[in-house]
Specification:
This protein is mostly beta strands. It has 4 domains: 155 residues, no CATH class; 107 residues, Immunoglobulin-like, CATH 2.60.40.2030; 101 residues, OB fold (Dihydrolipoamide Acetyltransferase, E2P); 85 residues, no CATH class. 3% of the residues lie in helices and 34% in strands. It contains 3 helices and 34 strands. The strands form 9 sheets. Strands 8-7-2-1-13-14 form a 6-stranded mixed beta sheet, with no helix packed on it. Strands 19-21-17-15-23 form a 5-stranded mixed beta sheet, with no helix packed on it. The termini are far apart.
Length: 499
Amino acid sequence: MADLFFSEYIEGSSNNKALEIFNSTGAAIDLAADGYIVQMYFNGSTTAGLTINLAGTVAPGDVFVLAQSAASATILAQADQTNGAGWFNGDDAIVLRKGGAAGIVIDSIGQIGFDPGTEWGTGLTSTADNTLRRKTSITTGDTNPLDAFDPSVEWEGFATDTFDDLGRYTGGAVSDGVTVAIAALDPNAAEANQDPGTFRLSRTGDTTTALTVSYTIGGTATNGTDYTPNLTGPAVIAAGQTSVDITLTPVDDDLVEGSETVVLTLVQGADYNLGAGTSATVTIADNDFSLTRIYTIQGAAHRSPLVGQTVTTVGIVTAVDANGYYLQDATGDGDITTSDGIFVFTSSRPTVQVGSEVQVSGVVSEFIPGGASTGNLSTTQITATNPSATTTLSTGNALPAAVVLGVDRTPPTQVIDNDQATAYNVLQGGGTFDPAADGLDFYESLEGMRVIIKDALAVSGTNGFGEIFTVANNGAGATGLSDRGTLNIAPNDFNPERI
């Protein structure tokens, strides 16, 4: 693509040195804004010994003259910018870059890293003590400063201190500049249903030929792993077309990654200029989440260690109530100190069915019937009042096996709680959580779980709430049973086995 290039080179007597730069594009160029610089590489060095940042605006078809500040008055009369440092001699390479020191080379004179001794070329068409003017047939610069340089290929030579044509150039066709930009046509992609995202690279100006556009890939997503295809670049806008789309399809993996981004940033090329939109982002929404198992929510305590936190868990619905449902882990963790069940509070009657495997998200809390002032023990629950918080994964599942009291687990028979020398609130912790010895801890370890009381033996009549008290397994192992079938309390026996 058309850009600036050197149109005249003066390496005259003393400090009579100048460079003329021609704008072959169809638009004015702001040199400073686009980061145009001239670099001089002395005596075969591979490192620039002098860098000059260009400033000013060059109209289309016009030239910009950079001169040594001690040059003759004739040169300085044409100069748009001067510099007083030590300038090039005939054996020094010169480069014109766009985009600063790390930008692209758009023209060069000489060969970086090579010292020809005195000059490149011979006679008048050499780089020492001569004026060189670009042939009018040349329309673009020499973008490879590392290859061999023969000035006679693209330049015409004139005698020392020939300045009469400085400040004007009649060659180099002025073309309509091509400008490229990038935007996120569809910036929102998602792993769910592999919903794609799309970038669009567009160009203005000449569309008669295909245009290759380079870009870099950034963002937090991994190219070729989190989405396909694996972007290797560059993109090609076909001849006759003004744009090309790059569509990314997320990979629906099982990893909890959170939202990730893909950032494409255009790179300046020799055949185009960069427009206003040089970078665009597509965000990939994750559909994976970190599960917190029910037994982790319950913890080995009366109070959940996750109170106040939002969790997502899964389990089998074991019972449905008017304002919620009971959920139990399908397999459990095998730890008798942590319950595998929990109540999910929905406020209104839920639509889930017993035997359904569901996923639920909500806030962990401790519900105390009647309020904290009653001294009642709390029930750990998940508050999920929004219907969308519960998702049914499958139906008709077998229920988790119930714990048979008196067979699988036997409640303590004497101690309700003996962890502290003085009374304390079990909800605040501080004691030892010991389901094998303490009645309170035993029943807490089964909170929300399916249980069976096998061969229940009634040890009371029906009370005013329609309740009866029993012991499991026909009273085997129970202490304090009387001949009349009741369960007596003793100073060292508070009958925690009574259910």
